[in-house]
Amino acid sequence: MKSLPIDADSIARLAAPHVNQHALEIQPYGRIVKLPNGLSESACLEAVQNLNQLLADTITLRDLYRKHHWQLAGATFSQLHALFDKHYEEQDAIVDAIAERIQSLGGVSIAVGHDVAEMTLIPRPPKGREAVQVQISRMLHAHEIILREARAMARRAVEHGDDGTNDLIVGSVIRTNERQVWFIAEHVVEVSSPT
Ligand SMILES: [Fe+2]
């Protein structure tokens, strides 16, 4: 049998990656794909909307911890550098849990900074460095925004019979944020005795 000549250029083109691909989204943001989870579509839709707000604010708080971990100054540097890193990691775990809850309810989670910046209720900090007391005040304010909205969202989830969302918000978001508030608030307490 006579073999065909090998066209090396054609073969190499087959191995090239197909870059710059574009197509319609497979699910638009804000729409639910109903999954057989025993919850109504309206319950899933409201939970997804609430969780996306909670996600935007949690990503922002997480990133505040990173910013302040990097930009710290002062005598408590080592201690707070480690504490802010720990809180960052805990918030990062919550970010993933919220986003995966949104997807498991048939929704679409926000993900990138552009969307977070549009949605978050937490005030934008300056790009420059701030004193540690100001850093902590800024994060306490962010925690309080999250705790207020989280408690309201947890109650709505109960009203819809959405125990999974309630459990995530209460067990992870609220409990972690309350503990982190305690740990950082104690750094801005005046501890000298009255004379
Ligand atoms: Fe670090």
Bound compounds: fe (ii) ion
- Principal-axes geometry comes out as flat
Structural class: mainly alpha
CATH superfamily, called what?
Ferritin, core subunit, four-helix bundle
Tell me what portion of residues adopts beta-strand conformation.
under 5%
- Average pLDDT confidence is 95
Q: Give the CATH class.
A: Mainly Alpha
DSSP helix count? 6
What's the gyration radius in Å? 23 Å
CATH architecture: Up-down Bundle
Head-to-tail CA distance between termini: 105 Å
Write down the secondary-structure element order: HHHHHH
Uncertain regions spanning at least 5 consecutive residues: none
Q: How many domain modules?
A: 1
Number of strand elements = 0
The CATH topology is what?
Ferritin
Largest sheet: none
> Can you give the helix content as a percent range?
55-70%
Question: Which key terms come to mind for this protein?
Answer:
195 residues; mainly alpha; Ferritin; 6 helices; flat; binds fe (ii) ion
